């Protein structure tokens, strides 16, 4: 199976024409931040770090589960599948189903989502979007966090820096006047 650097190259190629909301920042920079967040959480597992690079490929590119399974293995593909929304559903139903999926997912998938939420909230604080839109996005991320927090707490022994990063997440949520329950 391919490694972390291969996942980076794969993700950069798949997302090469995509940018963040500002229309300028290459999308892969978000993926890099997610992987950096995972490393900052003390994660060293290859499958999890590969999934950090690949977490948006099924949802946002022409990649499917089998592509990830073939290239990076079933464990990575399963993590990516859990953090992927079913875009065939209408938005309201999709969000409800996604939160349930996150809640039932493995701790490995939940930690990738945690790192993704951190990266998105860090970016959101510098967004030029109106406050109302940014607050709505932050509340959306809170729903995701609430779906994974119990699973992460139960697996805290596998995540060496969970407490300090949860405090960091809490500080980011406070910028949107949102208090989280640890």
Description of the molecule:
It is a single chain. The chain has 182 residues and is an all-alpha fold. It has helices at residues 4-14, 28-40, 46-54, 57-60, 65-72, 74-82, 91-104, 107-124, 131-154, 162-174. The chain is built from 10 helices and no strands. The chain has a single domain (4-174), classed as Hypothetical protein af1432. The model has no long low-confidence stretch (mean pLDDT 95). It is globular and about 45 Å long.
How is the topology of this model organized?
Blueprint: H1 4-14, H2 28-40, H3 46-54, H4 57-60, H5 65-72, H6 74-82, H7 91-104, H8 107-124, H9 131-154, H10 162-174
Helix pairs in contact: 1-3, 2-3, 2-8, 3-6, 3-8, 5-6, 6-8, 7-9, 8-9, 8-10
Helix content class: 55-70%
Query: How many strands?
Result: 0
Beta-sheet strand percentage? under 5%
- Rg, rounded, reads 15 Å
Task: List the defining traits of the structure above.
182 residues; mainly alpha; Hypothetical protein af1432; 10 helices; 0% strand; globular
What is this structure, in a nutshell?
Helix content is 68%, strand content 0%. The protein contains ten helices and no strands.
